[in-house]
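Reader question, answered in our methods column.
A reader sent in the components of a multi-part assembly and asked whether the whole thing could be modeled at once rather than chain by chain. We filled in our standard form and ran it. Here is what they sent:
COMPLEX SIZE: two components
ENTRIES:
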Amino acid sequence: KNQVEQSPQSLIILEGKNCTLQCNYTVSPFSNLRWYKQDTGRGPVSLTIMTFSENTKSNGRYTATLDADTKQSSLHITASQLSDSASYICVVSASNDYKLSFGAGTTVTVRA
Amino acid sequence: GAGVSQSPRYKVAKRGQDVALRCDPISGHVSLFWYQQALGQGPEFLTYFQNEAQLDKSGLPSDRFFAERPEGSVSTLKIQRTQQEDSAVYLCASSLTPGQGRSYEQYFGPGTRLTVT
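And here is the structure of the entire assembly that came back:
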């Protein structure tokens, strides 16, 4: 079973609107959680990183939250732009492993 | 360039052909990873190098897959006798340090899209 589950699988929003993506994980012992943005035909690029003690982190119009007790994270996109159309992948790192655990991603399509 | 580069970006192979995919990591990065990404899925771990040593190849799906990094920089992923199920995007990532923690980050290349016909 995948240790990182994301929802929804995909979503379509109108330009200027907000949206929230969800990530649940079971990775343990937890080290950090990153949200990556992957444009079509490109490799993933890190947007935010949060460790156990951090519960929110912003990067421009992207705001990530983390609840380490419930093992849930969210990525909120504010005032979406066409360039936000991409796949957003939740990636969790265990403190005793160099391997990363990837979610399947949420595909966001922003329409004018 | 400053980032991870991969070549070719696209490869079409006939079933049964051998292919070689190249990864140029960020200069000075100790760790190098190969991933396989199916359409609509997150990357799946294939193998890990620390300098020239292949420390983990547990994700390689079969003995048709082989990876090397002979001088601790450029890496090649070779797939012999390609099958249709090998069609995927192959991502390479590198990191400065071999460890974990907040400063540990993997930087990804653009990937090679392999299509086996």
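What stands out: The interface with chain B takes residues 4, 9, 31-32, 34, 41-46, 49, 51, 89, 91, 93-100, 102-105, 107 of chain A (CB under 8 Å). The first strand of chain A starts at residue 4 and ends at 7.
Send us your own complexes using the same form.
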